[in-house]
From TrEMBL:
Pfam families: F420_oxidored. One of its GO terms (cellular component) is plasma membrane. NCBIfam families: npdG. It comes from Candidatus Marsarchaeota G2 archaeon OSP_D. This is NADPH-dependent F420 reductase. GO terms for biological process: copper ion import; NADPH regeneration. Transmembrane segments: none annotated. Keywords: Oxidoreductase. GO terms for molecular function: coenzyme F420 binding; cupric reductase (NADH) activity; ferric-chelate reductase (NADPH) activity; NAD binding; NADP binding; oxidoreductase activity, acting on NAD(P)H; oxidoreductase activity, acting on the aldehyde or oxo group of donors, NAD or NADP as acceptor. Residues 43-152 form the Semialdehyde dehydrogenase NAD-binding domain. InterPro entries: NAD(P)-bd_dom_sf (IPR036291), NpdG (IPR010185), P5C_Rdtase_cat_N (IPR028939), Semialdehyde_DH_NAD-bd (IPR000534), STEAP_metalloreductase (IPR051267).
Amino acid sequence: MVLWVSSVPCMVHHYQQGSHFQLCCLGLSTSLFVLFSCVYKMKIAVVGGTGDLGEGLIKRLCLNHQVVVGSRIKEKAQNIASELSAKVREETGIEPNVSGEANPEAVKGSDVAVLAVPSEYALQTVISLSSEFPAGCVLVSPVVPMVKTEDGFLYSPPDGHHSMAEAIAEQVNVPVVAAFHTLPAKKLADLKLQPEFDVPLVGDSEEAVRRVSNLIESIPRLRPLYVGSLRTAQLVESLTPLILNVSAKNKLRNLSLKFV
């Protein structure tokens, strides 16, 4: 395919590493070489998009992607989609691409499905949708199994498993990537802020990890950092109770991570 940018002939080549395209522009001088990426707009289903983390992810991701809010009740999902669309328009002046559906319909045709539900409902939600995830979809789990005790928050994975992500992966036939555990929901939902955070992620599929990394990078100032296979998911999931305890014990609010 040939395009013209500022009267310069350009060749568009598919970039094999993820859902990106590279646009190579060569002018009259061989010294002129412009290279930039354009992010492919993915269809993102946010299952349980009516919660705090879901709101922030929807508001950020809808600026670059098609987002479908998922809920057990279609009307609730549609109301949330309408409400968040209005907020995004008001805060950015951009017309977002957000709709609402019942969970099974929300995940159909999705490139990425984000499981933004409380940990106590995560497995039953995944089991109920296990036959609905389309081939080629990547399931993202930001779910953190933990309990609150008199000593603070403690990591508490499902019985018989080292992590929630591994337990989820046993229930589905699509690749699972664990990510987004450490993002503070309030800062994520406030589009006036541009938080500069790192996002650790784990997964067994190289292509799935690459796709989720591209998704993370589509949110300005977020940096994906690969940790390892799903066997290392417990390391990433357990960061959340650590952050919450640091926050509570030291009176610090909306903490996250930045590796320096």
